[in-house]
Amino acid sequence: MAIYALKKWKHYFASSSLIIRTDQQSLKYIQEQRLVEGIQHKLLIKLLGYNYTIEYKKGKENKAADALSRTPLHQSVLPITVITPTWIQEVQNSYITDERCQQLLTKLTVAPSSFPNYTLRNGLIRYKVKLFIGTAKDLKIQILSTLHASAPGRAFRIKLLVYWPGMKQDIAAFVKQCPVCQKNKSENTPYPGLLQQLPIPDMAWTHISMDFIEGLPTSNSKNVILVVVDRFTKYAHFIPLSHPYTAQLHGLPKVIVTDRHPIFTSDIWQSLFRALGVKLHLSTAYHPQTDGQTERVNQCLENYLRCMCFTSSKCWQHWLSLAEWWYNTSYHTSLNLTPFQAQYGFPPPMVSEDICTDCPNLTVQEQLRNRQVAQQVIKDNLQKAQNRIKHQADKNRQERQFAVGDMVYLKIQPYRHTSLSSHRSLKLHSKYYGPFESWNRLVELLTRSYCLKVAHYMTFFIQLKKHLGPKAVPSADLPLIDSKGTIKVAPAALLDHRLIPRNNEPVVQWLIQWLNLPPSEATWEDASCIRKVFPSFHP
């Protein structure tokens, strides 16, 4: 500061003596010392030409220089301001209507040790240093909402802050009824709904199920296996594709059960079997249990091929006929016999049977009679097997019922960009949609969205979750979905555009707001990509 003052008022000090006062006593002898620091030389050079004297003055006496930093504080005249949060006043108000709190206030005021673990401080009751809350229900909900919905997630630490009788039950009920949690958290409960089984056919090859096994290495220009299973005899055919096969083996069936493969849901497939009078029953999206029979056959076939051709995986087609014979001649507990015997009426021939000459020849009438008896035995065995499976499956399931007017959430698979890049919020998308208030309204939406029949409504019980808590504002409609239950992605509006450099060339990008998403979830996409994927979109 002294050097700065000399520069500022140099014209005053040029011809007069100067006294420099400082609270650093060592500077008084700076002219007599041996200087070793470069900063000391620089300061003395700036003082050359002045007639000055350095005097030492204590800091507490140097009031002019330290006027601001040494201002005396008069504690007796300083006011004390205490800001009390509004919720503290609400806690105190909750004691007014609570008889237990009034009793605690009276006793603790007179005898602080009358109630163990309870203390009274500044009009607030504390239980083991935790703030005691009265019977004000609105205040409890406010506290739970603030802590449960906060970003840090302090709900699990609420027991360290406050206390009231029955707090554990209140917290559990509040978390269960939280609308945000109900829409975004998985349901960790036993499998909803009892097992609903398909009806037993009356004869062979009238009700079949089929599926594809894909992802195989190419073997003789074929890389897909079509698995066809008769639901009555459990007899199966394993057909490598592409193939010239037709319905020459068993004729046209009455009912075909399949999954929602694009081939089975295509217009040409639907139109063909509609013209042939064959009913098509499609399994529910993301619910392979609907056709568990074919899924189990697929598993058996994959295990067989894995064991037989793991060293030369491209030769799987040569093993397919043996795999089909192995499966159809294996014993099935649901039939109490093999699919071969259920199909043809006699056990599969063994290697040694070609030398047996004493086997009696049955007449045609006896063969027909045996076949009729065998069909009835097969139906009885299938019914027993279904009852046994249902009994075991229902042990880990809960029956779920919904009445008209119940508010429910519907689980839909999150959308996926198949043509565009993966959306940033795919993993964070809500698991459930709703709530929907009217059961009839939900059935109407499902029928329109999935083309369901009444018999298939039961399958959707596993996708429903009952709304807990007070009634919320019902959703007006479901998001746009396809036949698989996957949410469709389509541009809804163009919010902005920009020009960015890419590979030394300008690229036009659009800020797209997507269907089913708010404007805050809009993303920048290349205009050329949007025009290619969504040709009907005209911003």
From TrEMBL:
- The question of whether Transferase is a record keyword is answered with yes
Q: Which GO terms describe its biological process?
A: DNA integration
The record's GO molecular-function terms, alphabetically, read:
endonuclease activity; hydrolase activity; nucleic acid binding; RNA-directed DNA polymerase activity
Domain Integrase catalytic, by residue range, is: 195-347
Keywords carried by this UniProt record: Endonuclease, Hydrolase, Nuclease, Nucleotidyltransferase, RNA-directed DNA polymerase, Transferase
Q: Name one Pfam family in it.
A: RT_RNaseH
What InterPro entries has UniProt attached to this entry? Chromo-like_dom_sf, DNA/RNA_pol_sf, Integrase_cat-core, Integrase_H2C2, Retrovirus_Pol_polyprotein, RNaseH-like_sf, RNaseH_sf, RT_RNaseH
Name assigned to this protein: Integrase catalytic domain-containing protein
